[in-house]
Amino acid sequence: MSESLHTIIERLLAFRREREWEQFHHPKDLAISLVLEAAELLEEFQWKTDEEVKKHLAGEGRERVAEEIADIAIYLLLISHDLGIDLPAAIAGKIEKNEKRYPVEKAKGTAKKYDAL
Description:
mainly alpha
């Protein structure tokens, strides 16, 4: 069974505190690290066809992709904690905003941006 989000954040904060890494974790640096980890995730898919991606994810690539996703999530959780942003609430708010921007009757089956619908 998965740990709760609260428990994961507490573990991350303890891990960071024990190593005295708070001094390095300014919002800018966490944001940079998040983007760098996202680029590492992207590398797992770079130059691969859809079929090659399926094969990659069915084999040794799945664990690497999972680790990159975890790295991204770690930095996202740390920056949202440090900035006092309730991540689940922010996500819920963004979904509500997107539901208004992209009503089903206009957005269904299209990749157009909300201002082009």
